[in-house]
Write a structure and sequence with these properties.
alpha+beta, 6-stranded mixed sheet, 5-stranded mixed β-barrel, about 35% strand
């Protein structure tokens, strides 16, 4: 495998003004760097984290640096998706993927019909294998999920892989899990339920693998750690349109509102997180909360009329986690609005205040969102008796 980078430098993350640019502090100076990974990456991009960059000057370019990685818990994470095919080709040629030792790369970016595949493989029997390569940068302490944002294009690609398989082609996907601690893999049913449903349908017909990789700070080549486990039964049990949700709202000015029969309640300016649940039609419940114009029914409807939706985070689950979520939010919030949204349980509140945007707060994204979306599933995903 060729050397990917020279003179890798370490900077610290400041902000991300758009999908493809980040502002970093490098040797005491502020720089703009190109981010070649358009993923959401909310669980990685926190102020002050280490980012790995290379000087990448181009005449007329707005950025003279390129991000190649980020650090989490002291572990370097590869972010540069432009080299995914290089990583995959290296792993295949070096026979580092269990079960794929017979294959070699014949061609890259091979087009069939309306889809272009990353790699075309061939074996000694003159058989061919169409392979799609995906980089996975969404993970918890033991698990990894893909994608981290809704991808209709990705869902349609799965269907085309299935179609070609039925026509006699061998097709598959290689998920490059950029996290050496990952033990299990799953489609991200919290973020993209439709992609997950399609994956559940087509995965048994495809030759696919999720491989956990380890990187050094020099990002010379990936070390293959293990093939991640996939528990189809656990995924199917959890991937339904029901569960809990976190609505992140912003109130721009202090205001006193009449909240239904509760009467007047005062809200200071800041960010608020509402914890709710839906035993069915979770997606519709969230979409309703996003709308301002509607008949007011829940406490949240009144607050929503004067607030801005920052994010809506579903947590799909076969268990009722609403009160556990409220307890976790109470532990990290600066205040709670007593009696709000909790008339049918023993919680003191289901609405919590934070002074900063929770999406950029590591306690919220890791201790709450990641914990309830991923880390609580570790036992189930690794127990194939359930």
């Amino acid at each position: 495998m060729k050397v990917l980078y020279e003179n890798v430098q370490v900077a610290t993350f400041v902000e991300r003004p758009n999908r493809f640019v980040v502002h970093l502090e490098l040797q005491g100076q502020m720089i703009a760097a190109h981010l070649p990974n358009p993923g959401r990456m909310w669980e990685l991009l926190f102020v002050g984290v280490k980012m790995y960059v290379v000087h990448h000057p181009k005449e007329g370019a707005k950025t003279q640096y390129r991000v190649i990685g980020i650090e989490r818990d002291g572990v370097p994470i590869m972010l540069d998706t432009n080299y995914c095919n290089d990583m995959a080709e290296y792993m295949i040629e070096e026979q580092l993927i269990p079960g794929w030792e017979e294959w070699r790369v014949l061609r890259r970016e091979y087009t069939v019909g309306h889809s272009r595949f990353d790699l075309l493989l061939k074996n000694d029997k003159e058989e061919h294998f169409l392979l799609e390569v995906k980089s996975c940068t969404l993970f918890g302490d033991q698990g990894a999920m893909f994608p981290d944002a809704v991808t209709e294009r990705g869902r349609k690609h799965l269907l085309h892989l299935q179609e070609l398989q039925q026509e006699g082609y061998r097709t598959g996907i290689l998920f490059l899990v950029q996290w050496e601690r990952a033990l299990w893999f799953s489609p991200d049913f919290h973020t993209d339920l439709e992609f997950t449903k399609t994956f559940i349908e087509v995965a048994p017909q495809l030759d696919w693998k999720a491989m956990a990789l380890q990187w050094t700070p020099e990002f010379t080549k990936p070390i293959v750690v293990r093939e991640c486990l996939y528990n189809d039964g656990a995924v199917q049990r959890e991937a339904e349109d029901r569960g809990d949700y976190l609505m992140v709202l912003q109130v721009e000015e202090p205001i006193t509102l009449t909240i239904g029969s509760k009467g007047e309640m005062h809200f200071e300016a800041g960010y608020y997180i509402y914890v709710g649940s839906a035993k069915a039609n979770l997606e519709k419940r969230i979409e309703r909360h996003k709308r301002k114009r509607k008949q007011k029914h829940w406490h949240l409807d009144y607050l929503r009329s004067i607030s801005i939706v920052v994010a809506a985070l579903p947590i799909r689950s076969s268990s009722d986690l609403e009160c556990e979520l409220a307890k976790a939010m109470k532990a990290i919030s600066v205040d709670e609005v007593k009696g709000f949204g909790c008339s049918d349980c023993h919680c003191t509140s289901h609405l919590f205040k934070m002074d900063v945007n929770p999406i950029h707060d590591e306690r919220f994204m890791i201790d709450v969102v990641e914990t309830f979306r991923m880390n609580r599933l570790n036992e189930a995903m690794l127990d194939f008796q359930k």
